[in-house]
Amino acid sequence: MQAYIASRTPAGYRPQIVLAMFDETSERLCAQLGYDLIMPSVALRTRLDSKIVTTQLGDEAGAASVPNLLTTITGWEDLRAQAEQAGLGERLVIQLAYGDSGRTTYFVASKTDFDRIANEIVGPRIKAMRHIEHLPLAAEAVITRAGTVVGPVLREITGHPELTAYRGGWSGSEMYPGLVDDGTRHRIGSLIERFCGRLAEEGYRGILEVSILLDTDTGEVYLGELNPRISGSSAHSNLTPGDTTPPLFAYHLLEYSGREFSLDLDAIRAEREAALAGQEWSTLVIQYPGPHVDRIVASPGTGRYRIIDGAAGLVFVDAERDWQGLADGEDAFWFRAIGDGDICGPGVDAGMLVIRARAQEEHYALTPLVKRLIPAVQSAYRGERIGTITRYWRAGVRVLREKLGR
Q: What are phi and psi of 192, to 5 degrees?
């Protein structure tokens, strides 16, 4: 990679590096190699990634979360006493400070529910929320010195057992006409802008994703979580259907360009909304089905596919790299994350499927089309068994404990 970068960097320029996920080692390597890592620092991202900190900063910005407690508990009786005093009701959603794709989000409506997760939530600081009936939404945004540019509002695809083992687990997003009305979209945009203004005070610059909870009983818009990075929403927010509509990420590059600039945020918002009006797009993160840990010997390649009837479901067309070339609802794009020779097991993301159609019915069930496409992708993978998931899970736990000093 260093040779690749060196061969394509004009004399006198410093390479600028963008990474979706990175750590202190990545930062150190970029500094040693003379690269500019044009992303917020690991230290800042880690602090802001906490659901506790997100809630606190949102409250300060006037971007309220679902009624909640930020607290510690000693047991079931303590949790119920605190929840009752705060008026949170009998059904609670409990989150740890850190967790990805629903892995540390728990639903508690009884002592039986509590007992299953007591070891996880007794002791550390938690967020305990009122359970609400809601529409899970999200949008990417870019914080710049000239203000915040907000991407399209998306409906999140969460908790489907065909896609994830986690009840609140994220598995993709969709956008379609009528998802929310204009008034709700503007209220969501306003909440995100207020929240991002507070993040800017913390020193954050560039791309991020904000999840939103729309209470379907009251219409109230609540701040959900923050993903301080390039996110799974990027496939939607970087669509460029108009002749003059730049991808959302262009504003991230502009912010780190060192150039002076100004933005007409109202005009940008109107242009982006008009360019995407009437379009349907869905992304689905599909996991390797397992049930064993395998070395992959055959996998579907990245590119455009044709959706057909029957068990096969998908037929390869060509190795395109841009899913915006999908012509209609009979095309699909597979972006492969796990390929031939890789080691893979149950629950590992094999890749992302993009279609120009809705993925969920009004009441959250997956559409018949999507239910057919998921096994079509998974059946295209073949692996040679090299171990059991239990063996690798135990090894992973041992390494984690060693890193934590436990």
A: -65, -40
Kindly tell me the burial class for residue 87, based on how many C-beta atoms sit within 10 Å of its own C-beta (0-12, 13-18, 19 or more): exposed
Residue 53, H or E segment: helix 51-61
114/141 Cα distance (integer angstroms): 36
> Which amino acid would we find at residue 90?
E
The answer, as to whether pTM is greater than 0.85, is yes
> Which value, to the nearest 10 degrees, does the dihedral of the CA atoms of residues 238, 21, 122, 215 take?
0
Using H for helix, E for strand and C for coil, what is the string for 169-234? CEEEEEECCCCCCHHHHHHHHHHHHHHHHHHHHCCCCEEEEEEEEEECCCCCEEEEEEECCCCCCH
Retrieve residue 196's tokens: 């991002």
pLDDT digits (tens, 9 = 90+) for 144-201: 999 999 999 999 998 899 998 777 788 999 999 999 999 999 999 999 999 999 999 9
Distances (CA, A) of 292 to 220, 323, 347, 390, 400: 44, 31, 10, 9, 21
Using DSSP's 3-state secondary structure scheme, residue 23 falls into: coil
What is residue 390's three-state secondary structure?
helix
- At 88, give phi and psi (nearest 5°): -90, -10
How high is the pLDDT of residue 102? 62
pLDDT for position 406: 44
Confidence tier at 23 by pLDDT (50, 70, 90)? very high
Write out the E strands in 221-292. Answer: 221-227, 281-287
| Residues 208 and 140 sit within 8 Å (Cβ to Cβ) | yes
3-class secondary-structure state, position 7: helix
Do residues 236 and 281 make contact, with C-beta atoms less than 8 angstroms apart? yes
User: If you average pLDDT over residues 246-272, what whole number do you get?
Assistant: 95
CB distance 181 to 135 below 8 Å: no
> What does the block give as tokens for 26?
């990545």
Distance CA 104, CA 336 (A): 27
Q: With helix as H, strand as E and coil as C, how does 77-138 read?
A: HHHHHHHHHHCCCCCEEEEECCCCCCCCEEEECCHHHHHHHHHHHCCCCEEEEECCCEEEEE
